[in-house]
User: Fold these one by one.
Assistant:
Number 1:
Amino acid sequence: MVKNSIDVSKLLAGDRRSVARAISFVENENAGAEQFLSEIYQHTGNAYRIGITGPPGAGKSTLTNKLARYYRSQNLKVGIIAVDPTSPFTGGALLGDRVRMSEVEMDQGVFIRSMASRGSLGGLSKKTREAADILDAAGFHIILFETVGVGQSELDIAGAADTTVVVLVPESGDGIQAMKAGLMEIADFFVMNKSDRPGADQAVMSIKMILGFRPHDEHSWMADVVKSTASEGLGIEKIASEISRHRNFLASSGEFEKRRSKQMKSRIEEIVSDKFTITFWNSDRKQQLDQLLSKIISRNRTPYDVAEELLKK
Amino acid sequence: MVKNSIDVSKLLAGDRRSVARAISFVENENAGAEQFLSEIYQHTGNAYRIGITGPPGAGKSTLTNKLARYYRSQNLKVGIIAVDPTSPFTGGALLGDRVRMSEVEMDQGVFIRSMASRGSLGGLSKKTREAADILDAAGFHIILFETVGVGQSELDIAGAADTTVVVLVPESGDGIQAMKAGLMEIADFFVMNKSDRPGADQAVMSIKMILGFRPHDEHSWMADVVKSTASEGLGIEKIASEISRHRNFLASSGEFEKRRSKQMKSRIEEIVSDKFTITFWNSDRKQQLDQLLSKIISRNRTPYDVAEELLKK
C-alpha cells in the first residue's frame, strides 16, 4: 500500500518529495521495497559516484558541501548521502541533516540525505547503494557519499564509489598511520584539508612517500595529494579537476567497467546475505536461540553446535 | 592435520606458542578451526574483556600498552588484540606488531596480536572474539581489544567487551561530534588523552554535557570522563579504577549476565551468517554469478532477481 504512494514516473522526472519518500521506504525495509528498486533499476547507471571519507574532524562535510556547490555551478544536479554512524536514540542523523541544510541552502538541484548506520536492520552499504540508485534514477548527475570514520563498513561504502577521495588534515598523522588505517588502498587520491595549518607540507610529503612505495607501472593510476582549505573554498576546483582526471583514466583504461562489475558482485553478495538473514531469523528460530542461550553461557553447549543445530532445522 | 599441531592441553596451560598458533589457525579459517574452538569453549568465560576505541591518533596503542603494564604490576596476565584495518598488501598488521613489541618488551605475561580487518574472509568481530576465547582459555585474566577508527565493525568489536573505553583527544572535536560518530552509545566511559594540550578542559566539559542529556535514573550507570596523558603514564591508574568501578556495577546490577547474553546472541547470528555464506558461495554459484554479471550491468537483469535466482537453486 505504502508502495503505491511512491509514483515511479514522478521519481524518474526528478520530483524531490518522491525521492525523499523512496529513500525512507527503502531505509525502513518496507515490504515491496525490492520490487520498487527492481522497477527503477533500469533507469540507473548514469550518475557518477564519488566517495568522500576520512577521519572525524577532517572537514568532510564542509568539503562535500563546497564540492556540491561547484558542481551546481556546472549545472549538474547533486545528491549527497551522508552516513552518520548514529542510532535513532541520539538523533545524530537528523541533526546532521539540519546542520547541512543551512549550509547548502534550499537549492532544488541538491538533495541531501543522512543515513544512520547504527540500529539499521539490513546491511548499511546495501541501503546506501539503493539510496544512490534512487537519486541516479531521479536524474542526479553526481552522487557524493560522505562517510564519517575510517571503519570497515564506511570504507566499503566509499569503495562503492567510482572515485574515492580520502580527506586528511595535518593532525591526522603521517603516511604510516593512513596506511595502518587502510586508507591507502581505497584512496584514488588524497586531500590534505585545512592545509593552512602548520605541518601541512610535511604531512603531504609523508603521504606521497608512502604512495610511491605502491607497486605501479606507467599504465596504472597514480594517486596524488591535493591541498585544500575547504572552509574558505580554497582547492575545491583542484579537487574537482582531480576527480575528473580520475574519471577519464577509468574510462580510457577500461577500469570503469571492471570496478562496476566488482562492485555489483559484492552488492549481490550483500543482497543474498540480507535475504537469507531475514528469512532465517523467523520467530521460531529466535525463540529457539533464546531458549538455548543460557546453556551456551553456562558452557553446556557451544555457540558452534547451537548454530549448526539452528541451520539444520 | 594442522589441527593436531595445536596441543589443547598445552594451550590450556598457557603455552605462548600454542596461543600464537591457535590464533593463526582460527584467523586463516583452517578446516577444523570450529572443532578446535568448540573443544576449548568450556574453558572460556573467565577473562575480563575491555574494549579500547576512538579516532586514529588518539593514542590508543600507548594507552593500551600502559594499561597492560599496570595490570601486569597486579600480577594479571594480559592479552592484547589490536585490530588494524589493513590488508596483507600493506602489511600494516605486521608492522603494528613490531612497533608494539618494542614497547611492552618481552614480558611473558603479555600476549599481543594484531589482526587485519581487510581482506579477511569471515566476519571480523567473529574472529576477534575467537582470538579472545583462545587467550581466555589459556588463562589470560584481562583481554584488551584495541580498535582503530570509529567505524561500524570496529564499534561492534568494542561492543563485544565487558567494559568499553572511548579514547579522545582535545582535537577530536566536541561532544556533538562524538555523538555523531556513535561513540556516546558504546562508551562505558571516556578518556580525554593528551590532556596536557590546550582545550582539554573544554572538551571534557562538552562531553560531560552531552552525557548528562542521556536518559538515566539512580540505578543506571553514569559514564564519566577521565583525563590522561598516557605517553607520560599519567591517569592510567584512574582509568584502571574506572574500569574496576564499571566492572563492580555490572556485577552488582545483573547487567553483566545481560550483556554477555546479548553478545552471545549477536555472536551466534554472526556464526550462522558465516556458515551460510561459506556454504552458499560454492564454485557453481560463483560461476553463475560471473555469467549473469554482464546482464545486470547492461540493465537486462536486476541484482534482486539474480539474487533470488541464486537463492532458489
Number 2:
Amino acid sequence: MQRITSPTVTSVPGFVAAGVAAGIKLSSELDLALVVSEVPCTAAAVFTQNRFAAAPVVYDRTVLGFNPMGIQAVVINSGCANACTGTEGMANARRMAEMVERALGLEAHSCLVMSTGVIGTQLPMEKIQRGIQDAAAALRSAGGSDAARAILTTDTRPKTAGVTVEIGGARVTIAGMCKGAGMIHPNMATMLALICTDAAITHEALDVVLRRAVEVSFNAVTVDGDTSTNDTTAILANGLAGNPLIDDPASLAFAAFEEALTAVCIDLAQQLVRDGEGATKFVTVIVNGAKSDADARRAAKAIANSPLVKTALYGGDANWGRILCAVGYSGAEVDPDRASLFFASKQAGLDWLQVVDRGQPTDYKEEDAAARFAQPEIEIRVELGLGEGHATVWTCDLSHEYVNINAHYRT
Amino acid sequence: MQRITSPTVTSVPGFVAAGVAAGIKLSSELDLALVVSEVPCTAAAVFTQNRFAAAPVVYDRTVLGFNPMGIQAVVINSGCANACTGTEGMANARRMAEMVERALGLEAHSCLVMSTGVIGTQLPMEKIQRGIQDAAAALRSAGGSDAARAILTTDTRPKTAGVTVEIGGARVTIAGMCKGAGMIHPNMATMLALICTDAAITHEALDVVLRRAVEVSFNAVTVDGDTSTNDTTAILANGLAGNPLIDDPASLAFAAFEEALTAVCIDLAQQLVRDGEGATKFVTVIVNGAKSDADARRAAKAIANSPLVKTALYGGDANWGRILCAVGYSGAEVDPDRASLFFASKQAGLDWLQVVDRGQPTDYKEEDAAARFAQPEIEIRVELGLGEGHATVWTCDLSHEYVNINAHYRT
C-alpha cells in the first residue's frame, strides 16, 4: 500500500470532478461539487442515525436501495443542509439529482445528493440549477481539489486522502474527500465523505468493507458529541482497475482492499478532528482491558466527550480526576481498584507516564504530567484490568474559539 | 405551604450548625461545615451513580445501611473531594466522622460525611481535625448561613431554600442547602445537598419521598453533562414537629410532605443551574407528547446537554435546527412529521412562538425568535405528538467563562 501525494477523488482513474461558486453561501466561496465516473459504479453508503435525517439522506437511501450498481455521479452543496425542510425539501433533493442526470445525459437514479450547512431553510433551486450547469461544464480530471474545497462549511482547510494498493496483480486506487468541523461525532455527524475507487468489487462486499472501515475511523472521532441530520459516507467503485472481482470477505483481495480503505478513512477522520471547531490539541484516547470492545468504546467516548476533560486539555491541565470520573459514569464495567491511567505525548518524545495505579494516584511529578498536556498531540491511556476489550478514539479540546464559532453560526 | 424568608438548615427547629475556615482551601475561605441535631434523626440519601464513588459516599452508604434511624450530625468539607484516594481515603472519611462523634459526645456511626473539591488528593487530616474542633465550638442556631458558605467550591453564592407546611395539625419545617457550579448533571454530579426537617417520618417513607423529589429536581438539571464521584443529597428528619408519624405513601400527610420537599429540592436545583459555571442564561426545556416519560426525558436532556445548542443559547442565536437535531439523536421515539417546536421568554412577557410545525419551519419572523433568545430566561418546548410522555429539564448556556473556569481549575 502506498500513500498518494496530494490525493483527490480525481486521483482515481475514470473520475472527473468540479467545484464551483453557485451563490448558495453568502460569501463567494465554492459551494457546489460534482464528481462523475466515466462508467456506472457499484456504490455503498453509511448514513446518520439521527431521526431527523435530512432530505438528501432519505433520497440517497432510496436510490441505493434499488440501484446500487448504477451510480455514476455525486452532487454536493454546502451552505444549506436541506434538513427539516419537509416535502418541499424532499422534492428539491430529487430535483437536484435529476438536474445532474439531465445535464450529463445519465440514466435516471444514477446520481447521489449530499447537502451540508444551515438546517431548516430550503435550497435556492435556481442557484443550484445554474451551479450544476457550471459544474458540468467544468468537469475535469484535475477537478478533485476544487470539489474538496466546495464541500466545506466552517472547516479551515480541505481534507483529502488516498492510497494505491496491489490487488490480484492490478494497481487499485482509493481516494476520498470529507468535510467536518463542528458536530463531529461517532455515528456520523455533519460529516460528509465521498470515497472513489477503481476497484472491481461486488455491492455486497463494498457494503461490508465500508461499514467496517467507518466503524474504526469516522465513528471513532468526536468533536462535541452532536450527531447531525446529514452525515453520509459514500463510496463509488467503477471497476476500471481490472482486478479480479472482489466478492468474498474471507479472501486476501478483500483483506487488502479493507486495509487500504481503512487507512484512507482513518486519515480523513483524523483530519476532521485536527480541524475540529476551535481545536488546539489532537488527543488520542485508548482504553484497554475492558470487559468488551463495546465497554472500551463507551469509556473512551465518555472521556472524549466530557466538556470538563476537554476544557482541561485546552488549558493544559493534567486533571486526571476528571478522566477517571468520565470513565466512572460511562456505563462501562469498572472496578476502581483495577483502573490505571497513563499520559504521553509521543510526537514530542514524551513516553507513557503512569498517574494512577489501580485506583490510586502514583507519586508522579506534576511537572511531568504538565509537560505532556502542554503538547499539541496528547495520548491518554486507561487500563481497566478486566478483560480484553479495546478501543481507540480521537478527539480535540474545547476552546474559547469553539464557543465563538458556535455562538453565532447563523449570523 | 409557605416559603421561609432567608432560609437555612438552622431554620428547622432542633438543628444547629457552623461553618469555619479549616485551611483546606488555599484561600482563607470557609471550607468546613457541621450540622447537628439535638436528637437522633431518621435519615435517607441518594448518591452518585459514578463507578468511582468517592470515599465519603462509600462510607455514608455503609452507615445508612445499618443505622438509618440514629444519624445526628453531618460534616462537610470543600477544597478536597477525597475521591480516587484508595484505602487511605476510606480511612480518612471514617476518621472524619469519628472526630465529630468524639467532639460532640455522640454515638458511633451517627455522623455522615461529605466532601467536594479536587479529585485524587488526600484530605489534610490535621486541618480537618482542627476545623472540626472549631466548628463544634461554634455550633449555634443561627449557624446555617455559615454552613451554606463553607460547602461552596466554584459557586458564586450560597444556595438555600426552605418551606413550612401544616401536617396533621403540626407545623413542619423543611429547609436545605446545596453546592454545585460545574459538573452538574442529572443523576447527581459534584453536587452536595443537605436537607433538614423536623417532621416525624419513618425511614422507609423518607427514602421513598427523597428519591421521588430528587428525580424531578436535582436529576432534572444539567450544566455540562458530567456526573461526579461525590454527589450526595441527604435528608435528616428529627421528628420534633410532633406531627403524627408519616409512614404511608398513600396518605395525605405523605402527599403534603412530598409536595413541600419537592418544592425545596426544585428551588435548590434551579439555583444550581442559575449559578452554573459561566452561566448567562437560565433555560427551561419542556418535552411533551413523547411515547413515554422516559423518552421525553431523553429528548429534553439531549437538548440541554448539546454543546451546539448551549453555545447558540449563549450567542442568542435561535438556531432551532440544532434543537431538533439533538432530539433526533437522543434515542427517543420521533416522527419528524409530527414534531413541533416553540420558544418563549415568559419572564420577559414573550409568549410561545411556534417555529416548527410538524417537522417544517413556520413563517415566523426571525426577529421574534431572536427577541426570546436575547432574554436571560428562555423556555424551549418540543411537542412530539406521539403520546402522553412529559419531562421538564433546566439548564444553562455554554459560555467563554465556562471554558475559562474549567481550563485551569486546579491551578
Number 3:
Amino acid sequence: MKIVKLNDVPTSEINMDGVKNLVKQIPIGSMDGSPHFSFRVFTIGKDGHTPYHSHPYEHLNYIISGKGAIKKSDNEEIAIETGYFSLILADEMHQYVNKSNEPLVVICAVPKEKE
Amino acid sequence: MKIVKLNDVPTSEINMDGVKNLVKQIPIGSMDGSPHFSFRVFTIGKDGHTPYHSHPYEHLNYIISGKGAIKKSDNEEIAIETGYFSLILADEMHQYVNKSNEPLVVICAVPKEKE
C-alpha cells in the first residue's frame, strides 16, 4: 500500500516539441509496484499545453483543477474544467490546453510501461 | 474519445455487507471501450464506509474531496483528504472511512473486468 499527497510527489519539467509550461509527477507508478497502470499528474501552467499528438495506447484522465480544452482536430475542441473525466483511446489525436490564468491539473492514467 | 462531467454520470447505491452510505459511478469503463482500466467514483456519505476487505487485484485511488482514513488493520489507519493518492495492492486489507460531515469522494481505478 502506498499513500501520498500530491504536494509531496517530486516534479519534473517536460521539455519537448509542442509542449509549453508542463510539469509532470508520478504519484503512483511502476516504482511503487503498481502491476498494470500508473497515475501521472500533469500541471499545465498559464498559456501552456501538452503536445498535439496521438500514440498507440489509451489514457484515462481526471481534471483535478483549472479550466481548459481538449483539442480533437484543427477545428474542434471541447471545453473541460474541474470535475471532468476523459478517455483518450489509442491513435486519437488530442491536446490539453490551459485556457485560464490558473494551472490546469490533470490526472493521466496510462499502462505502466508508458509512464 | 469520451469527455464527461462527474455530475452527469449515473449513480447507483451500493448495498452489501460491511458497506454504509456508499454511492458508485463509472465515468470511464468497459461500456466506453476502455481497453484495460475503468475509473469508478465512490461517494461515501457521513458516517459511511466501504467494506473492510481484500481482493485479488489492485486499485489506484485519488481523493477528489473530503476527509477520512484508510483502515489497514484492526489497529492502524492512515488519514487521507483531498489531494491524496493511494495504491492498494492485491490481497491487502483496506477500508475507506469517512471522518467528516461532508462526503468523501474517491476515484477508484480497477482492471475493467472488476469495474
Number 4:
Amino acid sequence: MISQEMLRLGRQSSVIRAISEYGAKRKKEIGAENVFDFSLGNPSIPAPAAVRDTIVELCETLDPCKLHGYTSSAGNMEVREVIAESVRTRFHAPCEAGLIYMTCGAAASLTVALHALINPGEEVVVPSPFFPEYRVFAEKAGATLVDVPCHQPSFALNLEAMEKAISPKTKVVLLNSPNNPTGAVYSEESLSALADLLRKKEKEFGTEIYLLTDEPYRELYYGEGTVPWIPNLYERCLVGYSYSKSLSLPGERIGYLLVSPRCPNAQDVFAAVCGAGRSLGFVCAPSLWQLVVGKLNGLTSDVEEYRKNKDLLSSALSEIGYVITPPEGAFYLFVKSPEEDAYAFAERAKKYELLLVPADSFGVKGFVRLAYCVSRETIEKSIPAFRALMEEYKK
Amino acid sequence: MISQEMLRLGRQSSVIRAISEYGAKRKKEIGAENVFDFSLGNPSIPAPAAVRDTIVELCETLDPCKLHGYTSSAGNMEVREVIAESVRTRFHAPCEAGLIYMTCGAAASLTVALHALINPGEEVVVPSPFFPEYRVFAEKAGATLVDVPCHQPSFALNLEAMEKAISPKTKVVLLNSPNNPTGAVYSEESLSALADLLRKKEKEFGTEIYLLTDEPYRELYYGEGTVPWIPNLYERCLVGYSYSKSLSLPGERIGYLLVSPRCPNAQDVFAAVCGAGRSLGFVCAPSLWQLVVGKLNGLTSDVEEYRKNKDLLSSALSEIGYVITPPEGAFYLFVKSPEEDAYAFAERAKKYELLLVPADSFGVKGFVRLAYCVSRETIEKSIPAFRALMEEYKK
C-alpha cells in the first residue's frame, strides 16, 4: 500500500478548483466574456515590463553557468542583502541577510518553517477563516491545526478566543494579513495584544511559541503607510513572503522566509529552516528568479488597479444590498451569503454566470469569497447579474 | 524546542561543501588557475544559446499573466505532452502526459515520490555508493535506508547482496544510473535480473516494491545508444529526471517525475504524488522553465566536452598509476585511494592543490570522487600535480 494520506490529499478535489473548472467549461460554451469568474486568486495585472527587461538583460550579460548555476541552499547572498536592507529601511527593523532563506514561493516558506519548528503532536493555532492549505501543511509537519474564529463581521483577531486556544502544545501561531479570504488586515493594536498574550503564555507554560506570518499580500494594502511589521511587536517571529502577488509571478515560485534577529534562538531556527528545506527537497530557489527579485526589489505590479476593482465592486454590491466586509488588503471581497448555506448561494449564483467560492473550506460558514483580480470589464458586466441574483432573495 | 532533527541536518556540514569552501579560500590566496578543484558537480559547459533565445522569445511574445501564471500543480499539460511523446519515441515505451508531474528538480522528484509511496517504518534499498542526500530524503519520508554495496571495482549491481537486503519492509528500490559518484551505468542484463528479483520478492512477501530511478545524468552517457529505460524492464516504476545537468540549469530547479503506465496502480500512485507535492509545499514547477524545457526538449548542452575531459583525465591518471573505475556516464571519475584512508589521501592531495572528495559520505571507503565538469585547462594543469602526489606513495 502506498501512503493513503497522500493519496487522499491527491484525490481531494478543491472547491476552488472545481468551480474554476466549471468556469473553464462554461466559458467554452457561452464565451469567456459572458462568465463572471471570481474564483481564482491569480493576478490579473501583468508583471511590470521591468521584469521582462531584467530577464533579457541577465540573459544577455551574465555567464550562463553563473546565471543558471546553483546558489547556496539559502540563496544568493547579494540578493538576500538587498532584501535585508529593504526590510531595515522600510520597517525600521533589524534584519540580517544571514537569516533570510530564499524559497520556491509562499507555500515553501510555510512548509520549511513548520517542519523546522514542529515536533510531532504540537499545535498550530490559526485565526479562521484561513487559506485551506494551511491545514495540509501543518498536518504534514506533524502538527494539529487549531482554528480560532475571528470576530464577525470585521474578521479582526478575537484575542479572548485566541487565549482559550493556546495550550502547552501550541508551537506556532500562523497569521495571514492581509488575509485570504477576508481581505482583513490585523491592526497593530490587536497584534501587540496578541504578542503580549503569547509572551504571557510562554511564561505560564514554560514553552516557546513562534509567530509565523504569511505575507504574500503585504503590498496589496489599501490603507495608509504599510501593514504592521510583526517582528517589531514579537520577538520569536518568522516572516514568509512571496513575489507571486506583488510582482504577478505566481507560477515562478520565488519568495523568502526570514527569521527575525530578535528571536532569541534565531541562529538555531535558521539552521533548522535550512535542514527542513534540505530534507523536503528544496535545493535552492530558482536562480534566475532570485536575481530578478534582487534587482527589482521594491517594485510592484500596478496594484492601484486592484484598488479600483475593490472600490467598484464593493460599492456596487453594497448598493444592491449585499453585506460585505470592507476589504483593507489582498484582492478578495468577503460577502455574506443572503441564505444560510453558502454552497446553495454559490450554486444559485451560477444561474447568472457568477462564479463565487463558498468560504466553508476556509473554515467559516455563510460567506463567499470573490477574487476581484479580474478585468474591470468583468466587474462592470457582472453588476446586473449580482442585482438579478439578489432579486431572488427579495421575492 | 524546535525540531532537533532539522537542526542537526541544517548544521551538518557536508564534506563536499567543506572542500569546496576550502577551495574558494585557496583560490583567493593563490589564484583560481592554480587550484585544481574537482569537488563540485556543477556543470561547466554553459546552457545552449537556445535557452537564452527561448527565454527572450517567450518574454517578448507571451502575455505575462500566462507566462508567469500558475500552471496546474502537476504542470503545463502541453509541456507534459511533449515529454511523454519524446519518451514514447526514444524508448519505445508507453508514457502518458497525465502521469507526468513537473518538479522543482531532481531532489523534489525524489521527495514527492518517497512521500507518496512510503509508510512509516518501511525501507528504501539503495545500491552503494550513492548520493548522500538520498538518506536524508528517505528518512524524512519515514523510511529506513538500507544500503547494498555494489561489486568492486566495476560498481555494477550486486544482485546476491540485493536479494539478501530486500525484506517484507522494502517499499522502494532507489537507483541512480549513470551513477553519482562512480560514473557506472547499470547494464540492461543486471537491471532485468533485478526486476525478476523484485517480482519474485513481491510474490514471496505479498508486498509491492517500487523501483524509483533518479536519472539526472541520463544524457551524459559515453556508451552506444541510450542507457536502459527501466520501465521497459519493471512495471512498478517511477522515473525522476532533471534538466540540471543535461541543459546546464542546476539552479533553475526544473525536472519531472513520471509514473510508468505499466504500473498496475499508476493512477493511484500519481494521485499520491500530487498529494505529496501539495503537502510538501510544491505548488507548481517554475512556469517559465516548464515552457523552456517543453520547447527545447531533446536538446542538451555540448556533453561531448565532458567526454573529452573524461578521456583525458582517465588516461592520464591510469598512466600515472592510479586505479580508476572506467566511467560510462555522468561527469565523475571514481579513483581508488592509494592509501586505505581516503580522507588522508584527500588531505595529502591538498598539498598539490588538488581538491578531491573522499567517497566515505557516499557510503564506500577507500575511494575519492573527481567531478571533471571543469575546464580542459584545469585538467591539463592538474596532471603534474597528480603525478607528484603519486610519487609520495612510490617512495
